[in-house]
Amino acid sequence: MAKILVTGAGGQLGQEIKTLSSQYPQFDFIFADRSELPIDNAELVYAFIQKTQADVCINCAAYTAVDKAESDQDSAYRINGDGPGYLALACRDIGARLIHVSTDYVFDGTSATPLTEDDPTGPINVYGDSKLKGEQQALINYYDGTVIIRTSWVYSEFGNNFVKTMMRLMNERPSINVVDDQIGSPTYAADLAAAILTIVTADSFVPGIYHYSNEGEISWYDFALAIRQHIGSTCTVNPIPSSGFPTPAKRPHYSLLDKSLIKETYNLTIPDWQSSLKTCISRLRP
Question: In this structure, are strands 146-151 and 154-155 parallel, antiparallel, or unpaired?
Fold first, then answer.
């Protein structure tokens, strides 16, 4: 029975993969959170991979506090930059495949058309730069067996995310402000988890960099309006520019991902953001 190691198992994506794992009885899943496997500890990573002898490692572990990363750079670069490199070296040593999750924040946000895997990177914050370093480390150390998936605006029933925050604020306040000049597409972590497991079970494992998010093009303001509609809130949602909501870390203004390559390579059908949002909210409010 093939073994699949999932790092960062306590995060949104890790928990969604855990939820789906029962549909894949042909695999022996090993779920490791940060307390069990801190990926920024090279010795522990090597020992853990050697012990488990996993056939596939899905790296969901990451430092995701975008604003905090600006002041906690050491942690961000250790976890997001060095960690994937350690995993790649350990996987290469035993011949395991590595699937590593990255981000749209590796781009500078100045594009006017959906971003392809070949477009030049240029992070504008520490989080994005640390994730780009992780991509580079993984590819350098284990290129022949690495799939990197860049994703964006991740949300789910688990953890902290935009959808759950909006639902809470709309219940607590008569009005909220949401930026309307950052464009992209949300990603329901359950959909990404399903896509990753489709890659794991594909007839052919094709290494490289891929983009994945739900279909559609919206702003955070559009996203908030849709959330309000689904929960039947009367909260007023006001559109504001990014300049009206300053944050320690700059955000890319445009980070819509072109998903053509992953759809063609792995024969994926990607749900639109509206249907996935409806599914997630129905699970949050049964």
Answer: unpaired
**CATH number, residue 38:** 3.40.50.720
Q: What is the rounded distance in angstroms from the CA atom of residue 110 to the CA atom of residue 139?
A: 25
Q: How many domains does the chain have?
A: 1
- Residue 285 clears pLDDT 90, i.e. is over it: no
| Owning domain of residue 110 | 2-160+185-216+255-271
> Do 25 and 197 form a contact (C-beta atoms < 8 A)?
no
3-state secondary structure of 71: coil
For the cut 80, the answer to whether the pLDDT of residue 286 exceeds it is no
127 is catalytic: yes
Strands (E), the chain: 2-7, 27-32, 56-59, 97-103, 146-151, 154-155, 175-179, 183-184, 187-188, 208-211, 218-219, 236-240
Select which of 63, 127, 155, 221 is catalytic.
Answer: 127
Residue 222 belongs to some domain of the structure: no
Separation of alpha carbons 256 and 272, rounded Å = 13
Residue 226 predicted with pLDDT over 90: yes
Alpha-carbon gap, residue 105 to 221, rounded angstroms? 19
Measured between alpha carbons, how far is 231 from 4 in angstroms, rounded to an integer?
37
In degrees to the nearest 10, what's the CA dihedral of 77, 80, 83, 87? -150
